[in-house]
Amino acid sequence: MPATKTLSKETITIIKSTVPVLAEHGEVITKRFYEMMFSNHPELLNIFNHAHQKQGKQPKALANTVYAAAMHIDNLEAIIPVVKQIAHKHRSLNIKAEHYPIVGKHLLLAIKDVLGDAATDDIINAWGEAYGIIADVFISVEKEMYEEAAREAGGWKEYRKFVVNEKIKESDVITSFYLKPEDGGNLAKFEPGQYISIKAVIDGEEYTHIRQYSLSDSPGKDYYRISVKREDKRENAPEGIVSNFLHDAVNVGDVLEITSPAGDFVLNMETQLPIVLISGGVGLTPMVSMLKTLADIKPEKEVTYIHAAISGQTHSLQEEVSKIASENKNISTFICYEAPTETDLKAGNYQKEGYIDLPWLQSILKTNQAEFYFCGPVPFMKVINEALTKWGVPKERIHFEFFGPAADL
Description:
Strand content: 15-25%
Number of strands: 12
Order of helices and strands: HHHHHHHEEEEEHEEHEHEHEHEHE
CATH class of the largest domain: Mainly Alpha
Helix content: 40-55%
């Protein structure tokens, strides 16, 4: 952890005393924080995901982070894993050191605005001091990440232009985009499970939109591949502005600006244990990257890949995965369809109808002594996490990735 200034005992005591208040009012404070900050600095709307704001995901994620910082204010080492996870997102979004004073100012204003007289001068001053130290930790970690990304062979700072070399429809809902650097230069390597950010400049939109997409192919190619699900409007969720833009308006030959690969949801290549990959829907993107990498680099590793989709119509990269399994005796694949079509029934191309559950997992897996990686919609991940926990898989062998702000399982 980067060296930091020391907080006084008095400040630590005051911050600790606000923990119950943050537990009760944290989301209200962070929601008000975003309202005030965007009102005074609308240019920041070019960075933040508007949909996550509307759905309350971002305020909740920030509230959880602030709460964790308050809980561990006397031992910030404890939150370093969270700091690094967020720092990867920040680096991918080009969050800079100069943004932190703006955030700090509006966070304090929001605390005062929501708590009123209960937010005494002592509390505001203590939080101002504490925020400065927490911000220094983030800035230091992110500075190192920016420098590392720029130093790496084929690496770059901020955004780089890429040409869409291929656009392939993978299913009714998912399309893959193959991206090559416009300058013809080398590509930075990445670890399977990592993502890139795309900056979308869309006609009719006041602000730019940045979205992060997992890389869906293995490293070592002369392109990056992302496989994007079209997000249609549904209850409690707006239409996906960027996903629809990519599907409808971006074609072969078009240029997109992206940041270099980031993210800490990556394979432990050193483990001696078998590996189990589980995905739901478009959550297959990092899983396929991991699967292909394992097939290339660790062909002796026992790997099981389990995928859940609504049906064969929405199941993407199926042929690619089947080919890998057929060529590697140590790789097993299983498919679960929620509502298989007549075509699926005739083809018999799946092993379970309905949903993944613990009894089925226990029937297809030899043991729970494995490293488990999973990704998909939050309700799906909750079910998988609960099943693995019930089966006795320890936390340190359960790895998962959220598409968007981190939440609780």
